[in-house]
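We both want to read discrete structure tokens more fluently, so let's practise on a single case. Would you supply a protein for us yourself, any chain you care to pick? Would you write everything just below, so we can both look at the same thing?
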Amino acid sequence: MKFELKKWDAAYIDDVTHFANNAKVAANLRNVFPHPYTRTDAKEYILACAADPEERQICRAIVAEGHAAGSVGIFCGSDVYEKSAELGYWLAEEYWGRGIMTEAVKRLCRDAFAKFDIVRIYAEPYARNTGSRRVLEKAGFTLEGIMRRGVYKNGEVLDYCMYGLLKEELDQT
């Protein structure tokens, strides 16, 4: 399916309010992504992304069929992690299974490796989130390990995975 990665803009507040307010989406993300997801949550997130100078991160709206249906971002580390960056993303349930997120991840990783002095991008999906794990694997990421009982989400202690993509592996997929 055709989509675009666009800089965040206040025009997307209503879209994000609608698409992000989904328990299935929130269940696979960190607690900073609330449920229910309100218009205030969407406004604060979008305006923060839009105002960011992108010196240490890149955040993009995933625009499909004219709507901001998700988000993808890469956030550079600091201290001993300064050569690494973390990847985070979500997509509206209506768009799952269409190959959008795999392509969005590939595009943003390419942009991040070109823009920042980093050698590695990593992601930490919950082990039970098979859809997100498939996205990463199709985008060229390698499963580096499973962190047993490493996170606490919605009253459950869960395993999470560590996936990594090295700069030299970028175009091997």
User: Anything to note?
Assistant: The mean pLDDT is 97. The radius of gyration is 15 Å. Strands lie at 4-6, 57-64, 67-76, 84-91, 120-123, 142-153, 156-166. Helices lie at 13-20, 23-26, 39-51, 100-115, 130-138.
